[in-house]
Amino acid sequence: MKRLTLSKQNFIAISAVLMVACTSTQKVQNESPVGIVTYNQYAVKAPAGTDTSFYVITNQEAFDAAFITSDSDQLPKPGFSGQTVVVIAAPRNGAVKIERATINGKTMRVYAATCNREAADCPKNGLALVTTPKSGSVRNVQFFINGVNNRSIDIK
């Protein structure tokens, strides 16, 4: 049988790596991307305030109470049997664009970035409204703007 020898330097290096790995508090994230569909024809019924507003809507009645359409009724509408609506309403003169959404366990994360209203891919009315596939396991939606967690909303 061959004997394995370890130099003092190698032993110290391996020990340091193991200590860092065992004391790390970083969690492994298993975020799964979900598709989003953007709707640009809606506006908030209540006037924009000075703060950013966040919405998670799971039924037609709540949606109709909060939003109006600015275009023809011929345009596609959210289907609440299989979709959840998530919305970020920027304050006056502001604008955000929802870039992506992910699900990790019981949490959906919605990632957005501020944008210039003159940009072609930026909502002109400051309202970023998208649908995501409805997931029965999701119980909380977290909204991130420019990498900062701005709001967390529980789904009942």
Structure description:
Helix content is 15%, strand content 38%. It is mainly beta and 156 residues long. The chain has a five-stranded mixed beta sheet, with no helix packed on it. A four-stranded antiparallel beta sheet has the order 2-9-6-4, with helices on one face. Strand 7 (96-104) and strand 8 form a beta hairpin. The longest helix is centred in the first third of the chain and has 16 residues, at 8-23.
Compose a concise summary of this entry.
This protein has helices spanning 8-23, 60-66; strands spanning 32-34, 37-38, 42-44, 53-57, 67-69, 83-89, 96-104, 107-114, 127-133, 140-145, 148-154. With 156 residues, it is mainly beta.
Low-confidence stretches: none
Overall 3D shape: globular
Strand order of the largest sheet: 1-7-8-10-11
Give the amount of beta strand, in percent: 35-45%
Average pLDDT across residues? Answer: 84
The percentage helix is 10-25%
Total domain count: 1
What is the tally of helical segments?
A: 2
Count all strands and give the number: 11
Order of H and E elements: HEEEEHEEEEEEE
Alpha-carbon distance between the two ends: 64 Å
Radius of gyration computed on alpha carbons: 22 Å
Largest sheet report: 5 strands, mixed
Structural class, judged by helices and strands? Answer: mainly beta
Task: Throw out a few tags for this protein.
38% strand, single chain, mainly beta, globular, 156 residues
